[in-house]
Amino acid sequence: MPRQTFRSTFTRVLCGIVWAIIAAVAVGLLVTPAVTDAPALILLGALGAAALVGGVLWSPSVSVDDDGVQVDNIALRYRVPWAALVHVDTRYALQLHTPGRRIAVTAAPAPGAAGSLRAARAHRRSEEAATPQIRPGELPNTDSGRAADMVRTRWHALRDAGRIEAGIAERTPVAVTARVGNVVLLVLGAAGLIAAIAVA
What we know:
It is a single chain. This protein has 200 residues and is α+β, with helices and mostly antiparallel strands. The protein folds into two domains: 4-59 and 181-199, no CATH class; 64-177, no CATH class. It has five helices and eight strands. A five-stranded antiparallel β-sheet has the order 1-2-3-4-8, with helices on one face. Helix 2 runs antiparallel to helix 5 (180-199). The longest helix is centred in the N-terminal third of the chain and has 22 residues, at 9-30. It is elongated and about 70 Å long. The termini are far apart.
C-alpha cells in the first residue's frame, strides 16, 4: 500500500494566514518611503519569520507505510515499527504507545473545548454517528481523530493480513533521530529575525 501522510488542517491554514500577513507587512514596509533605505533588513526579517512559522506549523506530520509509523515533530523524528506499537490514544493529541514510551504527535492535536463541541455536533448530525459517547479526540472530523484513523486502519490491515509479528514489541526498537534540517531552519529563521530587529 502507498505511503500516507497527515498534517493538521488547522495548522496548515494558520500557517498560510501568518505567511500572508508576513508578506503583506514586508510589502507595506518596502513601499514606505521612511524605510526604503533598508530593504535587505526587511527581507531578512520577513524570511526569518516565515522560516520560523514553517518550521513550527507546517513541518510536523505523521506518516504510515507498510513498515511502520513515522512521526515528524518539530525537533525529533520517531520511526515506530508496527511490531512495536501496542496502543493508539487521542486523549490530548494522537499518542502512539510502545513498551516504555509514549509518543505525542504534534501534527495531530486533540480539539479544545470549543472545537470538541463543534465536532461533536457535526458528528451527531452525520449519518455515520453510531456511538454518541465518543471521546472528542476520536471524532472523525478532528485532526487527532483523522490521524488516529489513518494509523489504525493501516495497522489493523497489516495485522489481519498476518504481516505483523506478535509478541515482540518489547524487543522491537523505536528509532529516534533529530530533525536536523528543521532545527537548522528554525535557528536560521530566528537568527535572521533577531538580526533584522536588532539592526533596525
